[in-house]
Write a structure and sequence with these properties.
The complex is a heterodimer of chains A (352) and B (286). In chain A, the strands form 2 sheets. In chain A, strands 1, 2, 3, 4, 7, 8, 9, 10, 11, 12 and 13 form an 11-stranded mixed beta sheet that branches. Chain A has a two-stranded antiparallel ribbon with strand order 5-6. Chain A has 2 domains: 33-134 and 259-314, 3-Layer(aba) Sandwich (D-Maltodextrin-Binding Protein, domain 2), CATH 3.40.190.10; 136-257 and 330-351, D-Maltodextrin-Binding Protein, domain 2 (3-Layer(aba) Sandwich). With 352 residues, chain A is α/β, with parallel strands linked by helices. The radius of gyration of chain A is 24 Å and the shape is globular. Chain A is built from 15 helices and 13 strands. In chain A, β1, α2 (48-53) and β2 (59-64) form a beta-alpha-beta unit. Chain B is mostly helical. Chain B is 74% helix and 0% strand. Chain B has 13 helices and no strands. Classes of the chains: A alpha/beta (352), B mainly alpha (286). The interface between A and B is medium-sized, with 33 and 31 residues.
Amino acid sequence: MLARTHRLRVALATLATTALVLASCQGAEPQELLVLEWAGYEAEDFWTDFQTANPEVPVDFEFGTTDADILSLMQAGSQADIFHFYTGWQQFYVDEGLVREIDTSKLTNWDAVPADMQALGQIDGKQYFIPWDWGFSSILYNTEQIAEVTSWDALFNEEYAGHVSMWDDGPAAVTVSAYINGWDETAITDEQLAQIEEDWIAQKPLNLHYWDSEYENLCPEVTSGDIWVAYAWQGCYASALYEGAPVAYANPEEGRNSWVGLYGINADTDSYELALQFLDLKLAELTCGNAVTLFYYGCANEDVMAAVEDPVLIEAFGINDPSILETTNFTPPVTAEQRDAWTAMWTRVKAE
Amino acid sequence: MLGRRGALRFLALPPYVWLGLFFVLPLILIVAISFRPETGPINFDDPWAPTLVQYQRVWETESYLRLLGVSVLMALVVAGAATLLAYPVAYFLAFRARDRAVFYLVLLLIPFAASYLLKIMAWRLMLGQEGAINSFLQYIGLTAEPLDLLLYSRAAVIIALIYVWIPFAALPIYAAMQRINRGHQEAAADLGAGPWSRFWRITVPLSLPGALAAFFMVFIPTVGEYVTPSLVGGTEGFMYGNLIQDFFTSAANWAQGSALAVIMLVVTLVLVIVALRVVDVRRLSS
């Protein structure tokens, strides 16, 4: 009888211990992260503070090639805890319930982000996204071949045939055409889109190629002199300056374009706290500084930007130009219909 | 105990399961997705309401159909050239290499050990304005200026693809030549046939099944090729496979991309069936 009671006690104790262990396992966050990124952003310099703080936490990356691609991966149920995209696409993630609200009270570097930038990540008063990298889009040109570029229409100049390179991106093509024609890019009509398509089909033979990776198939050919005029971000401009290439970055009369990269946390993540810490430390001075000094992207930490002393970077970011923001067009949000129509237009241009 | 037939079935099960899961099932999914009306990725919770709207859009877009035609033509050129160039390689291995055949075969397969991307990137260096080919042409005085058309053109895509496929194409031709009974050649020689006559009347017909297999082995994947055009094609080298890729990535429109993929699959299959009907392999090789 005693032996039987003892066995029962042992069995109950084992059961209770197992239940406790299982319960504690369920409560603990997995100590690993998966980030849906753009190729190149997996470099450790881009998350060095997090790595230092959490050397034991594995961080894996999966990649998207465009904003549409990243959105579609998230819609398809990506397991990524964190995802990275650019301005104009915020609303889709919120509307489809793909993103979790960010508790900014847990971010130690949040105060270093200017209020205007913080606002870019807010929808309906809630902070869903953290701004991180930013920059300009404009015309990068070879000053030995071209005296001055004053308009975005330089991309359509037949004198530069075979030495032009446009970014392989439908919405960017629509934006450029809207600037040149003075159209409101948020209200492009079907007729205007048809005109844009015709213009880009006519422009197609001028390109050496469409570029899709800044540092792989744009900057090297700008530096080598094969590309004279290109749609480019300021990172490539800084890179070419460091290489000693004869280049300038235009201030077109229609204005430059500006973009901001944002991070969101997957609504279904099991690693919310770790993801928050990852994003907080993305904003830390060393990591943000690496984005600026190693990759020539602007960073949302204003203390980092204020500390920039390198003349090449000051020139690339227009830090000493007080009028730069007045003449800059910020990327507006697009609707799903616009996105589909613009990307379909671009595939037709490429298929011609 | 399993009988002989049972054992064979048991052994064949893993590859069938593998093909079913990773080939047939994805293919069925692609076909199913192509009948969906909406853009974006697929939510399996959505009700199934098949429509032909994606096919209608492709049909109404002339540039897509034209691009399919161009891609088929490019694939024909690549498959034809790769097969022709692979033929002498296979002939050498089968009839001339003798004891060293295995060594040369290994040499032929060595390029497979290098990354595909690396090989195509090497072609960018070869075909570039200051690349090996342009430098050579200028050195021998054939051109005064570097030729622009070598890189970022349709020609660059075709050249790079032919290079990539030659070793693949050589293998089925070599296998067919290995099966040729040497007695036929000896009998023909005894009856007074010269080397050229023996080659045309014995070797070529008997190796044709291998050559045709090589042709289709190159032709079918080349129609849907997208990596090589992305790297060396520029704006003019864009192929139908790039279009499909764009719809799955840049455009995030899986339904349209699936419809394009299904159309390509059907067109390629029809072309292969028609070709096999026109060319009677059995009659040629008998």
